[in-house]
Amino acid sequence: MEWNARIEALRNVGLEVLDIVKRKDVKELWDASDNLDSACEACHRSYWYPGETPAFYTRLDRRLRDRVGSSSPAARPASRAK
Ligand code: HEC
């Protein structure tokens, strides 16, 4: 079941982080924190806000652009270089 796999992933990275903390390895902790964040976020995407797919954000972008029009800075990123 996907839920159990997600839990397992969080548990594994959690144990890894605990070990790193004990060794006080800042560089490794920095990298592992990315993995920890991914373990949280992957589960949230499946079970907390499953509707937030890439397609959802594409539609949201389009709706925002329709509403704000071409004056939106995000709609004309090239002009920001000036
Ligand atoms: C196995 C799945 C899973 C994992 C892994 C997971 N979460 Fe969640 N999390 C959920 C679900 C599902 C909800 C939504 C609960 C609800 O709807 O009330 C949630 C909700 C939350 C909330 C909101 C709580 C609130 O009061 O509304 C926070 C904050 C959160 N998670 C943080 C984290 C962090 C930080 C991690 C990693 C360290 C993590 N979660 C890992 C499943 C997970």
Descriptors:
0% strand; 82 residues; binds heme C; 3 helices
Describe the structure.
This protein is mainly alpha-helical. The chain has one domain (2-68). The protein has helices at 2-23, 26-48, 54-68. Helix 1 (2-23) runs antiparallel to helix 2 (26-48). The model has no long low-confidence stretch (mean pLDDT 89). It binds heme C. Heme C is lined by residues 3, 6-7, 10, 36, 39-40, 43-44, 47-48. The site of heme C has 11 residues, from helix 1 and helix 2.
Report the total helices.
Answer: 3
Mean pLDDT: 89
Radius of gyration of CA atoms, rounded to a whole number: 19 Å
Count the strands?
A: 0
Question: Approximately what portion of the residues adopt beta-strand conformation?
Answer: under 5%
Strand-and-helix sequence, N→C? HHH
Distance between the termini: 52 Å
Shape: elongated
Largest sheet: none
Helix and strand topology:
Elements: H1 2-23, H2 26-48, H3 54-68
Helix pairs in contact: 1-2
Bound molecules: heme C.
Brief digest:
With 82 residues, this protein is mainly alpha-helical. It has helices spanning 2-23, 26-48, 54-68. Heme C binds at residues 3, 6-7, 10, 36, 39-40, 43-44, 47-48.
